[in-house]
Amino acid sequence: MTIRRLLGLTVVATVTACSKSATASGTPHALTVSVRDNTFSPPADSINAGDSVTFTWQGSQMHDLIFQDSVHVPNVSTPQTAGSVKRGFASPGIYKYRCTIHSSDFNTGTMIGTIAVY
């Protein structure tokens, strides 16, 4: 099994396992993702359409954050070491994001993440 396929299966399994964290009440839910040195924490999670995610920088290294689907979710940041930014997700889908400094694409590297929106 290739590393790319193994990572893909890991992301699917993680998103599936995390799908229980999305609220079913219809009340907006907020998720926080830590942007740490060479990792996102959690790297995969789920929310409901209409919920938001706050990305908070907590490491000492420079990181940026872009989404693969920048049409539906605007790119989040330029390179920075501190601060936070909040993004809402209106439409269901799987949204991949990455730090362009530490990951060369949306499937490999140390800083990739996924938000599943239901």
Shape: globular
Mean pLDDT: 80
CATH-assigned homologous superfamily = Cupredoxins -  blue copper proteins
- CATH names the topology as Immunoglobulin-like
Q: Alpha-carbon distance between the termini?
A: 30 Å
CATH C-level category: Mainly Beta
* Widest β-sheet, arrangement of strands: 3-9-8-5-6
Based on CA atoms alone, the radius of gyration comes out at: 14 Å
Please identify the structural class as seen in this structure: mainly beta
Strands, total number: 9
Helix content: 10-25%
Q: Kindly report the oligomeric state of this protein.
A: single chain
Task: Count up the helices.
Answer: 1
Structural description of this entry:
This protein is mainly beta. It has one domain: Sandwich (Immunoglobulin-like), CATH 2.60.40. The chain contains one helix and nine strands. The protein has one helix spanning 3-18; strands at 30-36, 39-41, 44-47, 52-57, 63-67, 77-80, 83-88, 93-98, 112-117. The strands form two sheets. Strands 3-9-8-5-6 form a five-stranded mixed sheet, with helices on one face. Strand 1 and strand 2 (39-41) form a beta hairpin. The longest helix has 16 residues, at 3-18.
Distinctive features:
118 residues; mainly beta; Immunoglobulin-like; five-stranded mixed sheet
Describe the protein's topology.
Blueprint: H1 3-18, E1 30-36, E2 39-41, E3 44-47, E4 52-57, E5 63-67, E6 77-80, E7 83-88, E8 93-98, E9 112-117
Parallel strand pairs: 1-4, 3-9
Antiparallel strand pairs: 1-2, 4-7, 5-6, 5-8, 8-9
